[in-house]
Write the structure tokens for this entry.
Amino acid sequence: MPELAGTIADAFEARIREHEETWLSPVAVRSYETRGRVAEEEECGLRTPFQRDRDRIVHSKSFRRLKHKTQVFIDPKGDHYRTRLTHTLETAGISRTVARALRLNEDLTEAIALGHDLGHPPFGHTGEEVLDEVVFERYGRRFRHNEQSLRVVDVLEKEGRGLNLTEEVRDGILKHTGAGDPATLEGKIVRLVDRVAYINHDIDDAVRYGLLSEDDLPREEIAILGPTGSARIDRLVHDIVDASAGIDDIRQSAGVGEAMLSLRAFMFERVYLGPQAEPEHVRAREVVRRIFDHLVERGDPVDEVVDYVAGMTDRFALDYADSL
């Protein structure tokens, strides 16, 4: 068996290169033409560089903590609500579907999607907002979860050694939101699909929680996108693929793109920042501020405070605040 494994490993890179030249679009990133890692290292004989990045992310502590971080509802008691982890997995699955249909690099797309929210703090949108506020009030700095996600993979994981990911994955993680477009089409897929995933699964959770009913959803947008979450995702994915085929960009058609943005605005107004969720928001704000102020007044350096708070799960943050 060792001889067979060695023979397969010796031919692996050549087979992948041949397959990608035959299958991938001319605008796709080739697995062995990566811009490299910050620290050079010997590559694996049975995984491409992007497959290794995916595995490093999945085996990281920050990835495992996503299972107890809020997507919409704080430390939800029901078994069927999404968490930051399930959002990440849904984003990765949809992104791979788009990448395959467009003949782009699925492994690169998947690695970016799996790592994009590693730096997200507890308590979802509210947690990020209040952490940004307290950091700005005290130090004149900003907190952005995409920047923290890059810091996690570059610096914080593996006791400060980082994961040493490829440049393409690092770029996609950093630019999945905020200013600037990703350098690769694979990264652009994740940037767009991130919204496709969370808008639709958050509607499902909001209905389950009782914040919305199906009749509350805006009729014009639903007529364009579909009556159910699965129908909307299917419509959005087909539209992305059709609008992006044969060009060097990832885009949506005007009508579908506008309907999705309008549905997103509705969710911010009614769910993410809506009055019905205000008690949850107040609790999250109080917890993050109490912990942050305690750690700063204790004398901890600001970078360590931000890293510690951003890395907390909902449950850990609630328990920590109660102990103060």
The two ends are 57 Å apart (CA to CA). Residues 78 and 209 are 9 Å apart (CA to CA).
